[in-house]
Design a protein that fits this description.
Layout: H1 5-11, H2 15-21, H3 23-49, H4 56-73, H5 83-103, H6 108-136, H7 142-168, H8 172-202
Helix pairs in contact: 3-4, 3-6, 3-7, 3-8, 4-6, 5-6, 5-8, 7-8
Length: about 210
């Protein structure tokens, strides 16, 4: 009731504390946003280079199909697979598959196939990012944490589109390579989570272990 409200407010963690706690997840989501934005501009430029600008949206959408499918399939991943490993593998898969996309300079069909492969890693990585948020968010801070995730991907897309668009002026491959850099940062975050989880295990706090 109203009498309990002051106590609830006092127990609610500050926004900064929440953001700091879920920083790894925000970082992953921000990088996924940059990845999306840069891949979109790269695909638009690739289609233009190959004389078929009207199908750019369709080719880009193929990545979304793969992403959505594997996001649904992510529930089948055994709990024994550590979250840090999921982030690492997801980021590595995104990095390698977007490099394949970079080489598909003469075929939109090959580009679409490479983007489909890329999407298979994007979906589970997004799902994992939300899983990291749930584990790291302090009590009473889940709503703020989830909102920050949405903001992170939106800002990431804006930056990825802006930087990727400028790079695309020199060729679609440069936009894809920038997306690869964003994916590589996700790999680094996965390694950081593994190290942090190992330290937590040493301190005997297995309920918060992310490794």
């Amino acid at each position: 009731g109203p009498i309990d409200q002051p106590q609830e407010d006092a127990e609610r963690p500050s926004i900064m504390r929440i953001l700091w706690a879920v920083a790894p997840a925000i970082g992953v989501m921000f990088c996924i946003g940059m990845f999306f934005g840069s891949v979109q501009t790269g695909t638009t430029e690739r289609a233009l280079e190959l004389g078929s600008p009207s199908v750019a949206g369709l080719v880009y959408a193929v990545m979304g199909v793969g992403s959505a499918f594997m996001a649904l399939m992510a529930v089948a991943i055994p709990d024994s697979v550590r979250i840090s490993s999921r982030v690492f593998v997801g980021g590595l898969g995104m990095t390698l598959s977007i490099l394949v996309t970079t080489t598909a300079t003469h075929s939109l069909l090959f580009t679409a196939a490479a983007l489909l492969l890329t999407g298979l890693f994007v979906g589970p990585t997004m799902v994992t990012a939300f899983g990291v948020t749930e584990k790291l968010a302090p009590r009473g801070g889940t709503a703020v944490a989830m909102t920050s995730m949405q903001s992170a991907i939106t800002i990431g897309i804006s930056i990825g589109s802006s930087v990727g668009g400028k790079l695309a002026l020199s060729g679609a491959g440069y936009s894809y390579m920038f997306a690869g850099v964003a994916a590589l940062i996700i790999v680094v975050i996965g390694v950081a989570l593994r190290i942090a989880g190992t330290k937590r295990r040493v301190r005997a706090t297995p309920e918060k272990t992310l490794a």
